[in-house]
Amino acid sequence: DAFSNRIVGWKTSDRCDTSLVLGALEYAIWSRDVRGGQLIHHSDRGSTYTSIRFAQRLADIGILPSMGSVGDSYDNAL
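RESULT FIELD:
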């Protein structure tokens, strides 16, 4: 969370796949009072974040997706 400077959702796995990031997202939603239209999820353009399942879950909750440009590492400096 860039506002509070906290990790709000996490999950571990032996695979880096969409289920992993969906699990972390669900934990973040559960741990915070997420309301539609009040949250932006920013990520890189990795396959887990560009998957249809992940995009649909963000839309279902009302979270606005945001992604950095391809090859742009400036957004990783936060």
